[in-house]
Amino acid sequence: KVSSILIYPIVMFLFAMLVVGALVTVVLPQITELLESLKQPLPFYTRWIISGSRFVRSYWWALGLGAAGIVVGLRAVLRTPRGRARWDRISLRLPVVGRAIRLIAISRFTRTLATLLSGGLPIVRALDTAKHVANNTVLGQAIDAARVSITEGASVAKPLCESGEFPPMVTHMIE
Question: pTM of the full predicted structure?
Answer without folding.
Answer: 0.69
